[in-house]
Amino acid sequence: MKGFTREESSWMYYDWANSAYSIIITTAVFPIFYKAAATNAGVDAADSTAYLGYTIAIFTFILAMLGPILGTIADYQGYKKKFFTFFFALGVSATALLAFVPSDNWLLLLIVYTFAALGSTGANVFYDAFLVDVTSEEKMDRVSARGYGLGYIGSTIPFLLAIAIILLAQKEILPISATVASKIAFLITAIWWGLFSIPLFKNVHQRYYIEREPNPVANSFKRLETTFKEIKKYRAVFLFLVAYFFYIDGVGTVISMSTAYGTDLGINATNLLIVLFVTQVVAAPFAILYGRLAQKFTGKKMLYVGIFVYIIVCVYAYFLKTTLDFWILAMLVATSQGGIQALSRSYFAKLVPKQNANEFFGFYNIFGKFAAIMGPLLVGVTAQITGKSNTGVFSLVILFIIGFIILTRVPEPSEAK
Protein backbone atom coordinates (compact mmCIF):
# COMPACT_ATOMS: atom_id res chain seq x y z
CA MET A 1 0.00 0.00 0.00
CA LYS A 2 1.59 3.24 -1.17
CA GLY A 3 2.89 5.48 1.60
CA PHE A 4 2.65 2.81 4.30
CA THR A 5 5.06 0.15 5.53
CA ARG A 6 4.36 -3.59 5.30
CA GLU A 7 3.61 -3.67 9.05
CA GLU A 8 1.20 -0.73 8.80
CA SER A 9 -0.58 -2.23 5.79
CA SER A 10 -0.84 -5.68 7.39
CA TRP A 11 -2.26 -4.13 10.56
CA MET A 12 -4.81 -2.10 8.58
CA TYR A 13 -5.97 -5.17 6.66
CA TYR A 14 -7.32 -6.67 9.87
CA ASP A 15 -9.91 -3.88 9.80
CA TRP A 16 -10.70 -5.09 6.27
CA ALA A 17 -11.09 -8.63 7.64
CA ASN A 18 -13.00 -8.00 10.87
CA SER A 19 -15.39 -5.39 9.46
CA ALA A 20 -17.27 -8.18 7.70
CA TYR A 21 -18.30 -9.30 11.18
CA SER A 22 -19.24 -5.76 12.18
CA ILE A 23 -21.63 -5.20 9.31
CA ILE A 24 -23.08 -8.70 8.75
CA ILE A 25 -23.29 -9.97 12.33
CA THR A 26 -23.42 -6.87 14.54
CA THR A 27 -25.43 -4.54 12.34
CA ALA A 28 -27.27 -6.20 9.47
CA VAL A 29 -28.02 -9.86 8.75
CA PHE A 30 -27.88 -11.38 12.23
CA PRO A 31 -30.19 -8.80 13.92
CA ILE A 32 -32.76 -9.27 11.16
CA PHE A 33 -32.38 -13.05 11.38
CA TYR A 34 -32.73 -12.95 15.17
CA LYS A 35 -35.73 -10.58 15.08
CA ALA A 36 -37.49 -12.90 12.63
CA ALA A 37 -36.77 -15.92 14.86
CA ALA A 38 -38.05 -14.10 17.95
CA THR A 39 -41.17 -12.87 16.16
CA ASN A 40 -41.95 -16.39 14.91
CA ALA A 41 -41.61 -17.58 18.50
CA GLY A 42 -44.24 -15.06 19.60
CA VAL A 43 -41.88 -12.53 21.24
CA ASP A 44 -43.09 -8.92 21.14
CA ALA A 45 -41.00 -6.60 18.92
CA ALA A 46 -40.06 -4.20 21.72
CA ASP A 47 -39.19 -7.12 24.00
CA SER A 48 -36.96 -8.83 21.41
CA THR A 49 -35.12 -5.53 20.86
CA ALA A 50 -34.69 -5.24 24.61
CA TYR A 51 -33.36 -8.82 24.85
CA LEU A 52 -30.79 -8.03 22.18
CA GLY A 53 -29.77 -4.98 24.20
CA TYR A 54 -29.47 -7.05 27.37
CA THR A 55 -27.34 -9.64 25.54
CA ILE A 56 -24.96 -6.93 24.33
CA ALA A 57 -24.78 -5.66 27.90
CA ILE A 58 -23.91 -9.13 29.24
CA PHE A 59 -21.03 -9.92 26.88
CA THR A 60 -19.59 -6.42 27.14
CA PHE A 61 -19.63 -6.70 30.93
CA ILE A 62 -17.70 -9.99 30.76
CA LEU A 63 -15.04 -8.52 28.48
CA ALA A 64 -14.87 -5.29 30.44
CA MET A 65 -13.94 -7.29 33.52
CA LEU A 66 -11.28 -9.30 31.68
CA GLY A 67 -9.82 -6.50 29.56
CA PRO A 68 -7.42 -4.75 31.97
CA ILE A 69 -6.25 -8.03 33.51
CA LEU A 70 -5.53 -9.73 30.19
CA GLY A 71 -4.09 -6.52 28.78
CA THR A 72 -1.64 -6.19 31.67
CA ILE A 73 -0.45 -9.79 31.20
CA ALA A 74 -0.19 -9.22 27.43
CA ASP A 75 2.35 -6.43 27.96
CA TYR A 76 4.94 -9.15 28.62
CA GLN A 77 7.06 -10.12 25.63
CA GLY A 78 5.29 -12.50 23.27
CA TYR A 79 1.91 -12.51 25.00
CA LYS A 80 0.05 -9.93 22.91
CA LYS A 81 -0.31 -12.06 19.81
CA LYS A 82 -1.20 -15.15 21.86
CA PHE A 83 -4.17 -13.38 23.45
CA PHE A 84 -5.14 -11.90 20.10
CA THR A 85 -5.06 -15.37 18.51
CA PHE A 86 -7.26 -16.90 21.22
CA PHE A 87 -10.03 -14.33 20.88
CA PHE A 88 -9.71 -14.31 17.10
CA ALA A 89 -10.21 -18.11 16.99
CA LEU A 90 -13.17 -17.88 19.39
CA GLY A 91 -14.84 -15.21 17.29
CA VAL A 92 -14.37 -16.90 13.92
CA SER A 93 -15.51 -20.29 15.26
CA ALA A 94 -18.64 -18.94 16.96
CA THR A 95 -19.55 -16.89 13.89
CA ALA A 96 -19.38 -20.03 11.76
CA LEU A 97 -21.40 -21.91 14.40
CA LEU A 98 -24.29 -19.43 14.01
CA ALA A 99 -24.97 -21.10 10.68
CA PHE A 100 -25.76 -24.37 12.44
CA VAL A 101 -28.08 -23.07 15.18
CA PRO A 102 -31.76 -23.97 14.55
CA SER A 103 -33.45 -20.85 13.23
CA ASP A 104 -36.42 -21.30 15.56
CA ASN A 105 -34.23 -21.17 18.69
CA TRP A 106 -33.83 -17.43 19.28
CA LEU A 107 -32.35 -17.94 22.76
CA LEU A 108 -29.56 -20.23 21.51
CA LEU A 109 -28.89 -17.72 18.74
CA LEU A 110 -28.25 -15.05 21.37
CA ILE A 111 -25.97 -17.40 23.35
CA VAL A 112 -23.77 -18.25 20.34
CA TYR A 113 -23.82 -14.59 19.33
CA THR A 114 -22.43 -13.77 22.77
CA PHE A 115 -19.36 -15.98 22.16
CA ALA A 116 -18.87 -14.55 18.67
CA ALA A 117 -19.04 -11.03 20.06
CA LEU A 118 -16.62 -11.89 22.88
CA GLY A 119 -14.15 -13.15 20.29
CA SER A 120 -14.51 -10.16 18.01
CA THR A 121 -14.35 -7.47 20.67
CA GLY A 122 -11.65 -9.33 22.63
CA ALA A 123 -9.39 -9.61 19.59
CA ASN A 124 -9.92 -5.91 18.91
CA VAL A 125 -8.46 -5.00 22.32
CA PHE A 126 -5.10 -6.46 21.32
CA TYR A 127 -5.42 -5.41 17.68
CA ASP A 128 -5.88 -1.79 18.76
CA ALA A 129 -2.88 -2.08 21.10
CA PHE A 130 -0.73 -3.23 18.16
CA LEU A 131 -1.08 0.29 16.71
CA VAL A 132 1.85 1.47 18.85
CA ASP A 133 3.98 -1.38 17.45
CA VAL A 134 3.42 -0.73 13.76
CA THR A 135 3.71 3.03 13.30
CA SER A 136 4.96 6.35 14.68
CA GLU A 137 2.95 8.93 16.63
CA GLU A 138 3.03 11.26 13.62
CA LYS A 139 1.26 8.70 11.42
CA MET A 140 -1.13 7.20 13.98
CA ASP A 141 -4.15 9.28 12.94
CA ARG A 142 -3.65 8.42 9.25
CA VAL A 143 -2.98 4.73 9.88
CA SER A 144 -5.92 4.33 12.28
CA ALA A 145 -8.32 6.22 9.99
CA ARG A 146 -7.10 4.36 6.91
CA GLY A 147 -7.73 1.11 8.76
CA TYR A 148 -11.33 2.09 9.36
CA GLY A 149 -11.63 3.23 5.75
CA LEU A 150 -10.35 -0.12 4.50
CA GLY A 151 -12.75 -1.82 6.88
CA TYR A 152 -15.73 -0.07 5.37
CA ILE A 153 -14.57 -0.77 1.82
CA GLY A 154 -13.67 -4.39 2.53
CA SER A 155 -16.88 -5.13 4.39
CA THR A 156 -18.99 -4.13 1.39
CA ILE A 157 -17.71 -7.11 -0.61
CA PRO A 158 -18.93 -9.96 1.66
CA PHE A 159 -21.95 -7.84 2.61
CA LEU A 160 -22.92 -7.38 -1.05
CA LEU A 161 -22.44 -11.10 -1.63
CA ALA A 162 -24.60 -11.88 1.41
CA ILE A 163 -27.32 -9.46 0.29
CA ALA A 164 -27.31 -10.94 -3.22
CA ILE A 165 -27.74 -14.49 -1.89
CA ILE A 166 -30.53 -13.43 0.50
CA LEU A 167 -32.44 -11.41 -2.11
CA LEU A 168 -32.11 -14.12 -4.76
CA ALA A 169 -33.39 -16.64 -2.24
CA GLN A 170 -36.34 -14.40 -1.35
CA LYS A 171 -37.24 -14.08 -5.04
CA GLU A 172 -36.87 -17.87 -5.39
CA ILE A 173 -34.19 -17.48 -8.03
CA LEU A 174 -31.89 -19.55 -5.84
CA PRO A 175 -33.37 -22.89 -4.71
CA ILE A 176 -32.83 -22.15 -1.01
CA SER A 177 -34.86 -20.45 1.71
CA ALA A 178 -34.09 -16.99 3.07
CA THR A 179 -33.14 -18.69 6.34
CA VAL A 180 -30.49 -20.85 4.65
CA ALA A 181 -29.27 -17.78 2.73
CA SER A 182 -28.74 -15.91 6.02
CA LYS A 183 -26.80 -18.86 7.41
CA ILE A 184 -24.59 -18.83 4.32
CA ALA A 185 -23.92 -15.17 5.10
CA PHE A 186 -22.64 -16.18 8.54
CA LEU A 187 -20.23 -18.68 6.95
CA ILE A 188 -19.05 -16.07 4.43
CA THR A 189 -18.28 -13.75 7.35
CA ALA A 190 -16.18 -16.34 9.18
CA ILE A 191 -14.22 -17.25 6.04
CA TRP A 192 -13.58 -13.60 5.07
CA TRP A 193 -12.52 -12.72 8.61
CA GLY A 194 -10.09 -15.63 8.82
CA LEU A 195 -8.60 -15.28 5.34
CA PHE A 196 -7.72 -11.59 5.46
CA SER A 197 -6.29 -11.79 8.98
CA ILE A 198 -3.30 -13.75 7.64
CA PRO A 199 -1.14 -10.64 6.88
CA LEU A 200 -1.40 -9.53 10.51
CA PHE A 201 -0.28 -12.92 11.77
CA LYS A 202 2.68 -12.91 9.35
CA ASN A 203 3.94 -9.33 9.58
CA VAL A 204 2.79 -7.66 12.81
CA HIS A 205 4.86 -8.26 15.93
CA GLN A 206 5.07 -6.85 19.44
CA ARG A 207 7.89 -4.26 19.45
CA TYR A 208 7.15 -2.65 22.80
CA TYR A 209 6.90 -4.90 25.81
CA ILE A 210 7.94 -5.66 29.36
CA GLU A 211 10.52 -8.39 29.82
CA ARG A 212 9.11 -11.66 31.07
CA GLU A 213 9.45 -12.45 34.75
CA PRO A 214 8.38 -15.25 37.12
CA ASN A 215 4.70 -15.35 38.13
CA PRO A 216 3.46 -13.09 35.31
CA VAL A 217 -0.18 -13.23 36.45
CA ALA A 218 0.60 -12.20 40.06
CA ASN A 219 2.97 -9.47 38.86
CA SER A 220 0.36 -8.23 36.39
CA PHE A 221 -2.07 -7.64 39.25
CA LYS A 222 0.68 -5.74 41.08
CA ARG A 223 1.26 -3.55 38.04
CA LEU A 224 -2.48 -2.87 37.83
CA GLU A 225 -2.43 -1.86 41.49
CA THR A 226 0.55 0.44 40.86
CA THR A 227 -1.25 2.07 37.92
CA PHE A 228 -4.26 2.83 40.11
CA LYS A 229 -2.04 4.26 42.84
CA GLU A 230 -0.25 6.48 40.33
CA ILE A 231 -3.42 7.53 38.56
CA LYS A 232 -2.54 11.24 38.91
CA LYS A 233 0.55 10.54 36.81
CA TYR A 234 -1.75 9.52 33.96
CA ARG A 235 -4.37 12.24 34.45
CA ALA A 236 -4.69 12.98 30.72
CA VAL A 237 -5.18 9.29 29.92
CA PHE A 238 -7.95 8.72 32.42
CA LEU A 239 -9.65 12.05 31.75
CA PHE A 240 -9.83 11.06 28.10
CA LEU A 241 -11.21 7.65 29.08
CA VAL A 242 -14.03 9.27 31.07
CA ALA A 243 -14.95 11.42 28.06
CA TYR A 244 -14.67 8.39 25.81
CA PHE A 245 -16.88 6.41 28.18
CA PHE A 246 -19.78 8.74 27.51
CA TYR A 247 -19.56 9.59 23.83
CA ILE A 248 -18.55 6.13 22.58
CA ASP A 249 -21.54 4.71 24.47
CA GLY A 250 -23.85 6.54 22.11
CA VAL A 251 -21.80 5.62 19.04
CA GLY A 252 -21.75 1.91 19.86
CA THR A 253 -25.44 1.80 20.74
CA VAL A 254 -26.47 3.47 17.48
CA ILE A 255 -24.34 0.99 15.50
CA SER A 256 -25.33 -2.19 17.32
CA MET A 257 -29.08 -1.50 17.56
CA SER A 258 -29.78 0.47 14.38
CA THR A 259 -31.12 -2.52 12.47
CA ALA A 260 -33.42 -3.62 15.29
CA TYR A 261 -34.61 0.00 15.57
CA GLY A 262 -35.32 0.16 11.84
CA THR A 263 -37.25 -3.11 12.04
CA ASP A 264 -39.42 -1.71 14.84
CA LEU A 265 -40.22 1.27 12.60
CA GLY A 266 -41.63 -1.13 10.00
CA ILE A 267 -38.78 -0.85 7.49
CA ASN A 268 -38.53 -4.16 5.63
CA ALA A 269 -35.42 -6.32 5.59
CA THR A 270 -34.55 -5.56 1.96
CA ASN A 271 -34.52 -1.81 2.50
CA LEU A 272 -32.52 -2.20 5.70
CA LEU A 273 -29.82 -4.23 3.96
CA ILE A 274 -29.56 -1.76 1.08
CA VAL A 275 -29.34 1.21 3.46
CA LEU A 276 -26.62 -0.49 5.49
CA PHE A 277 -24.65 -1.35 2.35
CA VAL A 278 -24.69 2.26 1.13
CA THR A 279 -23.75 3.40 4.63
CA GLN A 280 -20.58 1.28 4.45
CA VAL A 281 -19.67 2.74 1.05
CA VAL A 282 -20.19 6.33 2.20
CA ALA A 283 -18.40 5.77 5.52
CA ALA A 284 -15.12 4.66 3.90
CA PRO A 285 -14.00 7.99 2.37
CA PHE A 286 -15.26 9.93 5.40
CA ALA A 287 -13.16 7.81 7.78
CA ILE A 288 -10.06 8.54 5.69
CA LEU A 289 -11.07 12.22 5.48
CA TYR A 290 -11.23 12.43 9.27
CA GLY A 291 -7.64 11.15 9.43
CA ARG A 292 -6.41 13.76 6.96
CA LEU A 293 -8.30 16.60 8.60
CA ALA A 294 -6.90 15.54 11.97
CA GLN A 295 -3.41 16.28 10.65
CA LYS A 296 -4.55 19.78 9.74
CA PHE A 297 -6.93 20.67 12.60
CA THR A 298 -5.83 18.11 15.29
CA GLY A 299 -7.56 14.89 16.23
CA LYS A 300 -9.31 16.50 19.19
CA LYS A 301 -11.13 19.07 17.06
CA MET A 302 -12.28 16.36 14.67
CA LEU A 303 -13.60 14.37 17.64
CA TYR A 304 -15.68 17.45 18.52
CA VAL A 305 -17.10 17.38 14.98
CA GLY A 306 -17.98 13.70 15.26
CA ILE A 307 -19.75 14.15 18.60
CA PHE A 308 -21.77 17.08 17.23
CA VAL A 309 -22.91 14.99 14.24
CA TYR A 310 -24.08 12.23 16.57
CA ILE A 311 -26.09 14.68 18.65
CA ILE A 312 -27.90 15.64 15.45
CA VAL A 313 -28.41 11.92 14.69
CA CYS A 314 -30.08 11.26 18.06
CA VAL A 315 -32.38 14.26 17.80
CA TYR A 316 -33.35 13.35 14.23
CA ALA A 317 -33.98 9.72 15.21
CA TYR A 318 -36.70 10.83 17.62
CA PHE A 319 -38.78 12.12 14.70
CA LEU A 320 -38.05 9.16 12.40
CA LYS A 321 -41.16 7.88 10.59
CA THR A 322 -40.39 6.86 7.00
CA THR A 323 -37.82 4.88 5.04
CA LEU A 324 -36.51 8.18 3.64
CA ASP A 325 -35.95 9.40 7.20
CA PHE A 326 -33.97 6.25 7.93
CA TRP A 327 -31.86 6.86 4.81
CA ILE A 328 -31.05 10.39 5.94
CA LEU A 329 -30.20 9.15 9.43
CA ALA A 330 -27.93 6.43 8.04
CA MET A 331 -26.02 8.90 5.85
CA LEU A 332 -25.48 11.20 8.82
CA VAL A 333 -24.07 8.28 10.79
CA ALA A 334 -21.88 7.29 7.83
CA THR A 335 -20.13 10.67 7.83
CA SER A 336 -18.73 10.21 11.32
CA GLN A 337 -18.93 6.69 12.76
CA GLY A 338 -15.56 5.58 11.36
CA GLY A 339 -13.82 8.88 11.98
CA ILE A 340 -14.81 9.20 15.63
CA GLN A 341 -13.73 5.63 16.38
CA ALA A 342 -10.47 5.86 14.44
CA LEU A 343 -9.37 9.14 16.00
CA SER A 344 -10.35 7.98 19.49
CA ARG A 345 -8.06 4.97 19.02
CA SER A 346 -5.11 6.98 17.73
CA TYR A 347 -5.59 9.83 20.24
CA PHE A 348 -5.46 7.34 23.09
CA ALA A 349 -2.46 5.51 21.59
CA LYS A 350 -0.54 8.79 21.61
CA LEU A 351 -1.30 9.38 25.29
CA VAL A 352 -0.23 5.99 26.70
CA PRO A 353 3.30 4.68 27.43
CA LYS A 354 4.09 2.28 24.58
CA GLN A 355 5.56 -0.53 26.70
CA ASN A 356 2.31 -0.63 28.71
CA ALA A 357 0.01 -0.28 25.69
CA ASN A 358 -1.92 -3.49 26.35
CA GLU A 359 -2.60 -2.57 29.96
CA PHE A 360 -3.90 0.84 28.97
CA PHE A 361 -5.87 -0.48 26.01
CA GLY A 362 -7.38 -2.87 28.53
CA PHE A 363 -8.66 0.20 30.36
CA TYR A 364 -9.69 1.68 27.00
CA ASN A 365 -11.70 -1.49 26.52
CA ILE A 366 -13.24 -1.49 29.99
CA PHE A 367 -14.40 2.12 29.67
CA GLY A 368 -15.74 1.48 26.18
CA LYS A 369 -17.43 -1.76 27.13
CA PHE A 370 -18.98 -0.52 30.36
CA ALA A 371 -20.32 2.36 28.30
CA ALA A 372 -21.71 -0.21 25.85
CA ILE A 373 -23.61 -1.75 28.75
CA MET A 374 -25.27 1.51 29.69
CA GLY A 375 -26.39 2.54 26.21
CA PRO A 376 -28.23 -0.64 25.16
CA LEU A 377 -29.76 -0.94 28.64
CA LEU A 378 -30.95 2.65 28.40
CA VAL A 379 -32.50 2.03 24.99
CA GLY A 380 -33.95 -1.33 26.08
CA VAL A 381 -35.53 -0.08 29.31
CA THR A 382 -36.85 3.11 27.70
CA ALA A 383 -38.29 1.13 24.77
CA GLN A 384 -40.16 -1.17 27.14
CA ILE A 385 -41.42 1.65 29.39
CA THR A 386 -42.61 3.92 26.57
CA GLY A 387 -43.28 1.26 23.93
CA LYS A 388 -41.26 3.40 21.50
CA SER A 389 -37.68 2.70 20.41
CA ASN A 390 -37.11 6.28 19.21
CA THR A 391 -37.40 7.65 22.76
CA GLY A 392 -34.48 5.48 23.83
CA VAL A 393 -32.31 6.66 20.95
CA PHE A 394 -33.12 10.30 21.74
CA SER A 395 -32.04 9.80 25.36
CA LEU A 396 -28.49 9.10 24.16
CA VAL A 397 -28.04 12.83 23.49
CA ILE A 398 -27.09 13.45 27.11
CA LEU A 399 -24.18 11.00 26.82
CA PHE A 400 -22.70 12.88 23.86
CA ILE A 401 -23.06 16.22 25.63
CA ILE A 402 -21.30 14.96 28.77
CA GLY A 403 -18.54 13.36 26.70
CA PHE A 404 -18.01 16.59 24.77
CA ILE A 405 -17.72 18.68 27.93
CA ILE A 406 -15.17 16.33 29.52
CA LEU A 407 -13.18 16.06 26.28
CA THR A 408 -12.61 19.82 26.36
CA ARG A 409 -10.59 19.25 29.54
CA VAL A 410 -8.25 16.68 27.97
CA PRO A 411 -4.88 18.11 26.84
CA GLU A 412 -3.34 17.44 23.46
CA PRO A 413 -0.98 14.44 23.49
CA SER A 414 2.06 16.70 23.03
CA GLU A 415 1.05 18.72 26.11
CA ALA A 416 0.28 15.66 28.25
CA LYS A 417 3.82 14.26 28.20
TrEMBL record:
The keyword Transmembrane applies. InterPro entries: Atg22-like, ATG22/LtaA_families, MFS_dom, MFS_trans_sf. Signal peptide: none annotated. The chain crosses the membrane at residues 12-34, 54-76, 83-101, 107-127, 148-168, 180-201, 236-257, 269-290, 302-320, 326-348, 360-385, 391-410. Residues 236-417 form the Major facilitator superfamily (MFS) profile domain. One of its GO terms (cellular component) is plasma membrane. This is MFS transporter. Keywords: Membrane, Transmembrane, Transmembrane helix, Transport. SUPFAM superfamilies: MFS general substrate transporter. It is found in: Cell membrane. One of its GO terms (molecular function) is transmembrane transporter activity. Its main location: membrane. It comes from the Bacteria. It is a multi-pass membrane protein.
